[in-house]
Write a structure and sequence with these properties.
Length: 208
């Protein structure tokens, strides 16, 4: 079945599935699948699944770990303290949330007590993220933290090794950097994170 346009999504009646929120022009079907997913135990505790901000064609795509309390409550990615730091990182790059930037997480439902999602939860949710990346086709992927890096790169290597080089996910240039929540606890690493983001920007510019 073809994806409904955003307008079609907005016309649905009260007994129909959830409407597609702003910022999701063509991702309607996938959004419905994520919203009603019960593939892993994380769905039992969520207030709502957090689909992400998916902008097909955005050059940048940032991938985090999974929703926290504020994301679970509001249904949007990175809207808590880590999100405010992510917004600062975007701003330092001359970016802001919008058509240039897609933001998603490895798992779409909040792990109870903000625990790290298990490998099983990450791999169960991965098909959704793969489809999101396919919809966006970013020119650069930025993996925020160990969970995103290890899941997408299928690598057990430590962050120091993963950050030290550029990767390809499918054929998309990919950079690993620290998760903003880690940077809030460890501000001394912010300089390293900035170097990672500059590396990502160089790769993106080289790909034009
Ligand atoms: N941490 C994440 O990894 N993702 C969010 O959306 C919020 C905090």
């Amino acid at each position: 079945m073809p994806s409904p346009s955003r307008e079609e999504g907005e016309k649905r009646g009260p007994s129909s599935p959830l409407p597609v929120p702003p910022g999701l022009p063509v991702a309607g079907d996938l959004h419905q699948q994520v919203a009603s997913c019960t593939r892993c135990p994380l769905h039992e505790h969520r207030k709502q699944a957090v689909f992400g901000l998916i902008h097909p064609g955005s050059p940048w795509m940032f991938i985090g770990e999974g929703p926290g309390a504020e994301e679970d409550a509001r249904g949007l990615p990175f809207v808590g303290p880590a999100g405010r730091l992510l917004d600062g990182m975007l701003s330092a790059l001359g970016l802001e949330r919008g058509p240039q930037v897609s933001i998603a997480n490895v798992v779409k439902c909040r792990p109870p007590h903000n625990r790290t999602p298990s490998d099983h939860e990450c791999t169960t949710c991965l098909p959704f993220l793969r489809q999101q990346i396919t919809q966006v086709r970013p020119r650069i992927l930025v993996l925020l933290g160990k969970v995103a890096a290890r899941t997408l790169l299928d690598s057990p290597l430590p962050m120091a090794r993963l950050r030290s080089t550029a990767h390809l996910f499918e054929d998309i240039p990919t950079i690993v950097t620290w998760h903003p929540a880690y940077l809030l606890r460890t501000p001394a690493e912010k300089a390293g994170a900035w170097a990672d983001l500059c590396h990502a920007r160089r790769l993106l510019n080289e790909s034009t």
